[in-house]
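Comment thread on ticket #2218

A.B. wrote:
> Attaching the input chain for the structure job we discussed in standup.
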Amino acid sequence: MRSFISIDLKSEDVLDKITNFQNDLKGSACPMKIVQRDNLHLTLKFLGDIGDASYKRIVELLGP
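C.D. wrote:
> Ran it. Output below, let me know if you need it in another format.
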């Protein structure tokens, strides 16, 4: 499974600023994927494809 470690963005102010920035870039030549507001997050580390055992261990180590 493709996995990554990320932080959810909760601040409405931060979400507004990112959404506005994305909207400003829509008409530009900048190739980018626009992410819906509900899915915005800050990726800390992309892990790539990992197995179930690795996933469970990572969740255990990073859990609350």
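A.B. wrote:
> Thanks. Noting for the ticket: The mean pLDDT is 91.
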